[in-house]
Amino acid sequence: MRTFSVISVLIACIICVVCASKTVEVVALTESLCPNCIDFINSDFKEVVNADEVFDRLNVKFLSWGNAYTETTSEELCPSRTPGKYDVNVRKCWNERCNRKAKPELFAECFNKSFETKITCQHGENEGIGNRIETCAVQMTLNKTIDSMSRVGAEFILCFSGEHKGQKDYAAECAKKAGIDYDQLNDCVNSFKGWNFLREEAVATNDYGVHPGVPYILVNGSEPPEGKSLLKVVCGLLDQQDLLAGCKKHIAIDEHKRNLSA
């Protein structure tokens, strides 16, 4: 009888550990000067980051390549008739064909050594700088244990991309606010390291195929239902028997709003 009790306790402990460690994967494809991305960061993203206990249960892939693409010349890829001028059809073709499954010579053309000189961003050259700033801030502070955006990186994004709308002149202020060494951030942005981070994010972005636009959000591999907040979707996927404080507060606010409108 005692042996059975010990085994029962061990099983219960294992179950508790599994429940407590349950995480939700959130993928966010964004870009620094995109108005819709800025709105997302100032609303859904901010709500999730600030919800008590919730952000720590997320595995966040925050990729700042967005709708950018590199100019290619091979007919097997997506050569633009107006290089440097953003073309949504070229971008979608590039998303589809420039991926890890491409032939080595085509992969090299999409993500080559002159990567930094052939990028076309949706909102111009300043967006390219903003994307590198975001990428360096997120990648430099990555939670490498779970390969996820850290809270430090999230705080930088809320400041730089949300509050200051991706304007490069606010990078130092937001680095200080988030607790990032600005000299290291600046060195990253203006060095091969930053370009390499951005290249990795470009490849990772295309792992998700052709996206309709940005922000493009996936939660556990699926797009959230239209009109449903990111926090509500995330909370619905976490343990319902032991809701986190941020989820409980969100439910209480929702119920209060429903009562007021009833």
Q: Which shape, going by the Cα principal axes?
A: globular
In spatial order, strands of the major sheet run: 2-1-5
Reported for the largest beta sheet, the result is: 3 strands, mixed
Low-confidence stretches: 1-20, 255-260
Give the integer mean of the pLDDT values: 89
CATH C-level class of the domain at 23-68 and 121-256 is: Alpha Beta
Strand content: 5-15%
In the CATH hierarchy, the third-tier topology of the domain at 23-68 and 121-256 is known as: Glutaredoxin
SS-based structural class? Answer: mainly alpha
- Tally of individual helices: 11
User: What string gives the helices and strands in order?
Assistant: HEHEEHHEHHHHHEHH
Distance between the termini: 55 Å
CATH superfamily of the domain at 23-68 and 121-256: Glutaredoxin
Radius of gyration: 21 Å
- What is the count of β-strands? 5
Helix percent band:
40-55%
Based on the coordinates given, report the CATH architecture of the domain at 23-68 and 121-256: 3-Layer(aba) Sandwich
